[in-house]
Structures are given as structure tokens and as C-alpha cells.
């Protein structure tokens, strides 16, 4: 289940991609399939080991085109082990709401992104997330849980403040909002409750089968109750000495 829409976020074969806070690796796998040179990074060593196994399985099955590469590694989002201007693309999906120093994470992402590179950031949307917080303290008051709820303009302002230039936004996963509302209402750890089990089966069926009807319903509902807010931006080229927007020529300070 992808949150980033690659029709709005172009990815070219050979692009070097950082999936920051990759979790189970869903976006990293898609980038690998598209021919990118992918680095999937997360602080959770157990998840990284699983992602590495899936990368190996994908390579063995011939799921990635020639020239694509994939590496899974543990790391700290606030101290990325990469030189400046290392990546063409950075993706950070459903991560920033967990990190106290979100400005520091933004600064690190901008540092390792090449001028002209693209970044995709996804976070829980304010409205649906607010409902979850109202229904359940346990939903967010846990170690490693959500520590903030972003309003769209707040996130975009922070991106601009970090030197990024946003160019597009949308919402995703409307069908998932009611699922989390139900879980919060009956208890976030109560996976055996009948409404939770029934709705979960619906979501799994939808993800696996991608039926036209539910895809159409979700597209209609995304602007209203989409669970995720997605923002895309570029890192501008540095202005030249002359003050235009073209990259500075080699040999000029």
C-alpha cells in the first residue's frame, strides 16, 4: 500500500533514493522495482533485516531491472551517514509525527538531497488524526507514538523554512480512517473485536484485489477523510553570483 503517488512524484531509473524511516519497506520496494538505486534506512534493526531479506528475494525473482540496487541499513534520521547532495530523491512516510526534532530531520534531508532533487513527505492528516486522539489516549501516549498532529499549512511552512519549494499536495487512504476510529473506540490493542476484524478483512481485500468500486470510493473520500497528507517539494538550485536561478558554474565561489 503506497502513500506516495509516483504519477505526481516522478522517479527515473538510476535515481539514487533514500527511504528515510522505511519501516517495512513499502516505498523502498516500489522504487527498486522502478529501477532506482535505493537506500532504505531505519533505526529499527529488526525491520531493516526483514527489508534486506525482501530486497534479496526481489533480486532473485528478477523483480528489479538491470542497474537497480538496494541497500538496507540502520541509522539515525538526525545524523544521516551520507555526504551532502547524495540523493536525487528522499521519501519520508509517516515518520515525522514520531520525532521531537522534526526541524532537525528536515535539515538533514535537505542536506543530503541534491539541488534540483525531489522530496516526498507524508504525515497523518489533521482531521482524522484528531478524531483518533479524542477517542483514545493509548493511540498516541505510547513509547515511540505520535507526538504531534500537523496541519497542512504548518508542515508546508516548515518545509519552506528548511529551504524546500513545495509543488503539490494530496490526501490518501480515506478507507483507513474509519478503521482507526473503530480501533480507538474499542481499544487500540483489541484486534479481536468483531468490527475491527471485519473492517480489517475489507482493507486486506481492497489492498490485494484493488477493485474498481472501492478505488473510486476512496478517490472521492480522500479530500474529505484521507488518513494521510502528502506533500511534494524540490530543493532549489543555488543561485549564481549574478543572482539568477541557474546552478553556479564550476570554479565560481
Q: Can you describe what's shown?
A:
InterPro entries: Erg6_SMT_methyltransf, Methyltransf_11, SAM-dependent_MTases_sf. One of its GO terms (biological process) is methylation. It comes from Streptomyces polyrhachis. 38% of the residues lie in helices and 20% in strands. It is an alpha/beta fold and 253 residues long. Helix 1 links the parallel strand 1 and strand 2. The C terminus is likely disordered.
Cα(first) to Cα(last) distance is 45 Å
Gyration radius, rounded: 19 Å
The CATH topology label of the domain at 76-172 and 227-234 is Rossmann fold
Largest sheet features: 7 strands, mixed
Helix content: 25-40%
Keywords: Methyltransferase, Transferase
GO molecular function, one term: methyltransferase activity
Protein name: Class I SAM-dependent methyltransferase
EC number: 2.1.1.-
Amino acid at each position: 500500500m503506497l502513500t506516495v503517488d509516483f504519477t505526481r512524484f516522478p522517479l527515473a531509473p538510476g535515481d539514487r533514493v533514500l527511504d528515510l524511516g522505511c519501516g517495512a519497506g513499502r516505498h523502498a520496494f516500489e522504487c527498486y522495482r522502478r529501477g532506482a538505486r535505493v537506500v532504505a534506512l531505519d533505526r529499527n534493526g529488526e525491520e531493516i533485516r526483514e527489508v534486506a531479506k525482501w530486497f534479496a528475494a526481489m533480486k532473485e525473482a528478477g523483480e528489479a531491472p538491470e542497474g537497480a540496487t538496494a541497500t538496507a541499513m540502520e541509522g539515525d534520521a538526525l545524523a544521516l551517514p551520507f555526504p551532502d547532495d547524495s540523493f536525487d530523491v528522499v521519501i519520508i512516510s509517516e515518520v515525522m509525527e514520531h520525532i521531537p526534532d522534526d526541524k532537525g530531520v528536515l535539515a538533514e534531508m535537505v542536506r543530503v538531497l541534491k539541488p534540483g532533487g525531489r522530496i516526498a513527505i507524508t504525515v497523518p492528516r489533521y482531521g482524522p488524526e484528531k478524531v483518533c486522539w479524542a477517542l483514545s489516549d493509548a493511540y498516541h501516549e505510547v513509547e515511540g507514538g505520535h507526538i504531534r498532529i500537523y496541519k497542512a499549512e504548518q508542515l508546508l511552512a516548515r518545509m519552506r523554512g528548511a529551504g524546500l519549494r513545495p509543488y503539490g499536495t494530496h490526501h490518501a487512504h480515506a478507507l483507513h480512517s474509519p478503521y482507526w476510529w473503530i480501533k480507538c473506540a474499542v481499544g487500540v490493542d483489541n484486534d479481536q473485536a468483531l468490527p475491527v476484524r471485519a473492517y480489517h478483512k475489507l482493507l486486506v481485500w481492497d489492498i490485494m484485489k484493488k477493485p474498481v468500486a472501492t478505488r473510486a470510493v476512496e478517490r472521492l473520500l480522500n479530500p474529505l477523510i484521507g488518513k494521510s497528507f502528502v506533500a511534494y517539494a524540490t530543493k532549489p538550485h543555488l543561485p549564481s553570483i549574478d543572482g539568477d536561478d541557474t546552478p553556479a558554474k564550476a570554479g565560481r565561489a
